[in-house]
Amino acid sequence: MNPQVSVLRKGRKLDQVLAGAREIFLRDGFEGASVDDIARAAGVSKATLYSYFSDKRQLFQEVVQAECQRMSTEIVSKIDDTMPIREALSAAAYGLTKFLVSDFSQRIFRICVAERDRFPELGQAYYAAGPGNGHQQLVEHLAASVACGELEIADVDMAAYQFSELCKARNFSLACFGVKTEFGESEIQDVAEAAVDMFMKSYAPKQA
């Protein structure tokens, strides 16, 4: 790693570099993206780019982490700890379902799958910043809901995985295979509501 990276990470041109890299990675993929094109899109010199990131892989990982953090913050900001569990899950399901079919998510997913064998660290970075981080937050929220009696779950970790998979119903597969690339609010909401309905049928406290 470039020894200057930790010092310069907060430099004023960092946002430009990340924005330019995001544009080129989404347009050309990882292998097709050139440092020259990224620097040009960012409006900086290659020397400036390398002062922040030692190589293209590190830059890709930073773009992914920044976008996943933005998405996570957006979803979490809509969830209040005082919300009833169904309302909180509905907000989370809508945010996740919408993100999964977003242009960014779909393109990054395809890049990570395509480069899995040669550059497994790309997919690992995306998983850690996105699905992995979201999973851990959901586990904590579900555990708190179990503790206060809102849910009855024997395996909270598995339940969190199940919730995420329910949010992939229909739209995610259609987007992955290019059958459909744009989804209306009602299509996203339908999947989110169905996910919460099925989840609550399994884990809501049973009536005596």
UniProtKB/TrEMBL annotation:
Entry keyword set: DNA-binding, Transcription, Transcription regulation
GO MF term (any one): DNA-binding transcription factor activity
Keyword Repeat part of the UniProt annotation: no
The organism's place on the tree of life at top rank: Bacteria
Domain HTH tetR-type: 11-71
Key word Transcription present: yes
DNA-binding region: 34-53
Protein name: Putative HTH-type transcriptional regulator YfiR
Organism: Cognatishimia activa
Originating gene: yfiR
